[in-house]
Specification:
By secondary structure, the protein is of the alpha+beta class. The chain is built from three helices and eight strands, in the order αβββββββαβα.
């Protein structure tokens, strides 16, 4: 009788093991670094959300004046509750395409001439397509001195997704303060670099409809961190499997 010998797998060479060790170490370090970065971003985002929530629900204050316009930024000013007094220039309003919880339509952006002679664009709110003509909402075209309360928003230059603003055709897909102000022939040096989303205070006649600002921040950093750290653990697991195999063979 002949005895059959079981074939045993050959061990990997030291060069191959060294190569696998280098690759595995690099992958582990990279995944841990990415996971750590996502954890930092998570705490940054949570802090941002907390600060914005505090601004939104704070008592309205005067918006930054001309001396502070150059320092206005998202980190310190966006979504700040503000209140301003002035007179609307309805003949210079601009319509910006919008999709809201009320459906598709337009934002009505109207210049407000303040008591100190400067100009702010006010997003007075939403109108449906059949209300784009001011003649269909005459009661909402308030005259004289008025007080606007709302949230400070930063300019949205360029346009919307895959669509550029077309000033010549008066087609607007984003609330681009500088471009709209120029198209409405407002003095550039006297126009604030931000706009204000009006609050939900009802306008006469019911249009425009204000208070539709969505204050929501995408926050998936925890999911991303778990993913990267899981991949790092998988690298360790693969390394343990290779080490045990080589130990058993040798």
């Amino acid at each position: 009788m002949s005895e059959t010998l079981e074939a045993r797998p050959a061990p990997r060479s030291n060069a191959v093991l060294a190569f696998l060790l280098v690759i595995g170490s690099a992958l582990f370090a990279g995944f841990v670094a990415l996971g750590s970065w996502q954890v930092q971003r998570l705490f940054w985002k949570l802090d941002l959300i907390e600060r914005v929530e505090a601004r939104v629900h704070a008592e309205p204050v005067a918006p930054p004046d001309a001396s502070a316009w150059a320092r206005v930024d998202a980190a310190h000013d966006e979504y700040r509750a503000v209140r301003i007094t002035g007179e609307f220039l309805h003949e210079r309003e601009a319509l910006v395409q919008a999709v809201t919880e009320r459906g598709p339509g337009f934002w009505v952006l109207t210049p407000l001439r303040t008591t100190d002679g400067h100009y702010l664009l006010i997003n007075r709110g939403f109108v449906e397509a059949d209300r784009r003509d001011p003649a269909t909402r005459p009661q909402g075209q308030v005259s004289g001195t008025t007080v606007v309360t709302g949230l400070l928003r930063l300019s949205e230059p360029g346009g919307g997704f895959l669509r550029d603003n077309d000033a010549a055709a008066d087609r607007w897909y984003s609330r681009d303060v500088a471009a709209i102000a120029a198209a409405r022939e407002l003095p550039a040096q006297q126009v604030a670099p931000y706009f204000i989303d009006a609050d939900a205070s009802p306008n006469a006649g019911g249009w425009p409809v204000g208070g539709l600002t969505i204050v929501k921040f995408h926050n998936s950093h925890l999911v991303y961190a778990i993913t990267w750290f899981s991949l790092a653990l998988m690298v360790i697991g693969a390394g343990v499997i290779v080490w045990r195999r080589e130990r058993r063979i040798r």
